[in-house]
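ARCHIVE CARD
SHELF: 3
SLOT: left
DATA:
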Amino acid sequence: MEYGIYINGWREKKELMEVKNPYDGGVVGKVGVADEEDIKEALEVAKDAFGRWRKVPAYKRSEILYRVSSIIDERKEELAKTITLEGGKPIRYSRIEVARAVETFRFSAEEAKRIGGEYVPMDASPAGEGRKGFYFRVPAGVVVAITPFNFPLNLVAHKLGPSIAAGNTVILKPASATPLTSALLLEIFLKAGLPSDVITLLFGGGERVGMPLVESEIPRVVSFTGSRDVGKKIAKRAGLKRLLLELGSNSGVILDEGIEPEKVVKRLAVGAFAHAGQICISVQRIVVHESIYSEFLEAFVEEAKRLPAGDPMDENTVVGPMISERERDRVIEWVEEAKKMGAKEEIPLKVEGNVIGPVVLTEVPEEARVWKDEVFAPVVSVVPFRKFEEAIKILNNSSYGLNAGIYTPRVDHMLMAVEEVETGGVIINDYSTFRVDHMPYGGVKESGLGREGIKYAIEELTEIRFVSLMP
């Protein structure tokens, strides 16, 4: 596959960026790299297109999104294979991602017809007597969408679907590691009948392409999913824009007294090691009641050892490659650091090419990066606790707060977790990796700002326009 950039039509570029398979290093495609003039033109095209697109009726926007959903379903195997080839995601999980994207765009089509407002009782104040008040939502304007490599279809869908449903235009800059899926998705949008100037697609690095878009005065919203550090840079450089930032986590799970380890180990192993742990809400920290700690640890280690690792195109593979050699080397460094600080390897580090096998650590100091930072790799730390309150403190002792999983048979502990756990999502009796695409999804603390999930993203991507009417 070879693509240029897309600004109201495909354009060839002399400068091309290779897209490599992270498993074997083979070149799977090339894309053009946007330059300064491309960025300026893209911003002006998106601005001009917004003036027309915002006036398109909701039912027409909905129809386009329904067609996008249907075409994705028709091309699901092509999309799944592209995700696996450029991103290294095991094919079984790429197919799940495509199925989720079908649903995400269907939700977007449905929500396009539900964007409304609310009556405001003006006579609640003496000053408002005799007036009628109401508000409705209007599209914010141009949206800059910057997306990560790990879900190159469905996380793009979470930017494009709500934006198009709300009547915004979008400039999409996908991750440089996984641009081909975005190009295919744009083709699908055009086939579905989207006007040619509503979505612009630019390829290139963050500093070269992403930050000039962020800093421009034209966009009204920046929607970014990626690392905490890049999110902080965006927040500093965006100016007076609305920010929707999904910045990752070091997600934890509590296993309370009374939980039967054999009933949860398979679920937790998948939550920790699928796609090499390169998921924002992968299980990274497991906090286990001392009464079941030894039993759980033994069962979890055995389950992790059984997980197939290697070629992501193999139907059985669960643990595929790290996205790059740089990321592989970072993880090796972090694990070795933890060992020097006193951590014990229950499953030793095993590396073949870019594939890192499941790693299970115990006795991990809280200062170790594999514990306190987002490891984004198949590395899990397991620690014991005595009292449930202690487990919550361990979980909360983090700069992150995206999802947490709480396994407990006790209703009082469920309620305590709901009240006390400092995360955007508290998942009772399941792992932290649980997400469905219409739920409000986002974090607290350094895990980000705002919420995704179609209805909730639309609230972030629209503005309230209030009307006071004096008859």
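SLOT: right
DATA:
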Amino acid sequence: MKNSLRFLFNAIIALMLANNAAFAATDTKSLLSSGEAKLKAKDYTGAITDFTQALELNPKNAEVYLNRGLAKRSAGDIEGAKADFKSSIEVDPTPKDAAAYYQRGLAKSALGDNNGALSDYKRAAAHGDANAKTWLKDNGYK
């Protein structure tokens, strides 16, 4: 009887944990969507709040870091944006569109770190980012 109760208790705990994990994934997606809508509507503070909450649920989501970086840059927090772009790259060092490298390059450029910006533009271009390729070409780099 004790083994049956222990099994039942463990099964209930496992179901509760699985349910919480599924809720967190769904909630992360809804917070990401909400943040993106707020970013588009230029509600940068609201977008940053949503993205921060999403990262609390899933700190390994490169897309959320990228979007929060865009919101922070739009709100004037260039250092914060640069940190978020760095985190996005750390989570996914070879993003398909290389947006985090390009965006971090823009942030570094705005902060006066032209060598760092150039390095990021080159990385973004190497990963296929069209904006970075155009910037490099327009500024005499290959």
